[in-house]
Amino acid sequence: MKKLYMVSLGPGDYELITIKALKALQNCDAICVPTKSADNSFTRSMTFKIVEKLMKEYAFEKDIIPVYAPMNFKQEDWQKQVDIIEDSFKKYDNLSFVTLGDSAVYSTVYYLLDIIKEQHKEIYEKSEVIPGVTSFSHASAKVKKPLCVGDSSFLIRPLHKSKVPFTTVYMRPRIGMSTDRIKEKNDIYTFENLNYKGETILDYKKEKVDKYMTLFIDFYDRNE
Ligand SMILES: C[S@@+](CC[C@H](N)C(=O)[O-])C[C@H]1O[C@@H](n2cnc3c(N)ncnc32)[C@H](O)[C@@H]1O
């Protein structure tokens, strides 16, 4: 019964971790913590500081597994990280891998999950991604300015490159409206009543909106 939790830690303030993330850390056998130091030390690791603080504050202790994670965006580096996780499952049944902010936003988590899906299907199928507070949600709260309200929208753009594929999130539909105006480009999903009665997740665009609590995500094309 191996289980891998991909745990989002939030934007650096340990109090901005979710209860679900905290429970995953408390319930796992060991925590995989990325470090940019080749000697596997954690002196510069913000993730380690958060985990350490949580263990102290909530009185639990877990083995810490350093995962060397240079920011080179190389397949071989992600492969080595997956190998460490895979190897750790020989000793532990439940592992957490931690990431800053929310795992959905520019995180290593999905590079690793892509490899795990390919090479260790049984671990992939038992894995769970736990979302978190993003750096920009936190930044918005700090200055008390919304990211979008009323008829506005907001964009997240990488500064290092100008032309990039993008994901679009469609929110605030009217009940009964047609979704014709959504010209899906990539890989669209419909999410209804998430965490409420009647939660539905469809891997296509519903033609008509039945519930106010509906959002559509047209995920970017990962092969572009
Ligand atoms: C690799 S991305 C990770 C984003 C993260 N997963 C999130 O949900 O915010 C790192 C970028 O996020 C932004 N970022 C993350 N933490 C931040 C912080 N504490 N203060 C300011 N910007 C931050 C910076 O733009 C940084 O270059």
From TrEMBL:
Pathway: Cofactor biosynthesis; adenosylcobalamin biosynthesis. Pfam families: TP_methylase (PF00590). GO terms for molecular function: precorrin-2 C20-methyltransferase activity. The keyword Methyltransferase applies. Gene3D superfamilies: Cobalt-precorrin-4 Transmethylase, Domain 1. InterPro entries: 4pyrrol_Mease (IPR000878), 4pyrrol_Methylase_sf (IPR035996), 4pyrrole_Mease_sub1 (IPR014777), CobI/CbiL (IPR012382), Uropor_MeTrfase_CS (IPR003043). The keyword DNA damage does not apply. Residues 3-160 form the Tetrapyrrole methylase domain. GO terms for biological process: cobalamin biosynthetic process; methylation. Keywords: Cobalamin biosynthesis, Methyltransferase, Transferase. SUPFAM superfamilies: Tetrapyrrole methylase. PROSITE patterns: SUMT_1 (PS00839). Belongs to the precorrin methyltransferase family. This is Cobalt-precorrin-2 C(20)-methyltransferase.
